[in-house]
Amino acid sequence: MKAKLHPRLTKPWSRAVRQPGAGPSDAAGIEAVERFVAEVADRGHFTHRWALGDMPRWEALFRELEQRPARLLEIGSFEGLSTCYFLWRLPQAFVTSVDTFAGSQEHQSEAVDTSELEAIFGANVALVDATRVRKLVGDSKRVLLDLIEEGASFDLVYVDGSHLGLDVLVDAALSWRVVEQGGFLIFDDYPWAKLGEDPLLRPGPAVDAFRTLVDTRHELVFVDYQLALRKIG
Question: Are 162 and 202 in contact (CB under 8 A)?
Fold first, then answer.
C-alpha cells in the first residue's frame, strides 16, 4: 500500500532543513531518513508517514546515544514508524512502546482505520528487530505509574500519545520521573490544534505549563512542530 503523507509535509524528510538553526546534524539526519525509507519504511505497512519530516532534527540527540545500549520510551506508537526508526538508527538501543492501539484524537480527526493497529505495529517492528522492543498495551497514565514503580529509567522519552491538554501534562510529569539526568524529552505535535484553540484540546499549552514547572531544571534543545528538551536538574 502506498503511504499517505501528512498534509504538513511537502517531502517526508525535507522540512527540518528549512527551519532556523538547522545545521549539519539535520543534513546528516536527512540522509539517514532517506536510507531508512529505502531499507525499512518502503517495505513496511505504514499508511501515514507523519514522523518522517521530524526525524532529521533527532540526529543531534542520537549522536549522544548511538554508541551504547540506550533505553528509549515511546508514548504513542501507532503503526511503529518512529519505533522502527529508533531501532534502525540506534542498533544497540532498547525501546519500550506504550499504546492502547485503539487510536487517539489525532487519528480520529484524520479518519484513520485503527482496527488492526496492534498487528500492523508488530509486523513493522519485526522488519528491524522486535527482540529489542517491549510493548506495553494500555493507557499511558497507568503504564507510566507502573514503570515508575518498577524503577525504570530512560535516556529519551518520546511523547506522542493523547493530544488533550491535561493528558499531555500528565504524560509530561510522569515521563519526567523516568527520564535520566541529561536525558531527553521530545513532545510531538507541539502546535497541533485540530480540535480547536481551547487549551484543554491541544498539546502546546500543556507543554508550556510543564516547562514553567521545570524551568531551571531543563534546557531547550529545539522547537518546531516538535519540542525537545534536556533534563539538567
Answer: no
For 220-232, how does the pLDDT look when each residue is reduced to its tens digit (9 = 90+)?
A: 999 999 999 999 9
Q: pLDDT grade, residue 115 (50/70/90)?
A: confident
Give the DSSP H/E element, type plus range, for residue 181: strand 179-187
- Measure the CA–CA gap between 82 and 49, rounded to whole angstroms: 9
Q: Hey, what domains does the chain have and what are their CATH numbers? A: 15-231 (3.40.50.150)
Residue 3 carries which DSSP code? P
With beta carbons less than 8 A apart as the criterion, state whether 117 and 144 touch.
Answer: no
Give the number of residues written for the chain.
Answer: 233
CA distance 70 to 67: 8
Model's pTM, two decimal places?
0.88
Identify any residues that bridge with 186 across adjacent strands, giving them in sequence order. 158, 228
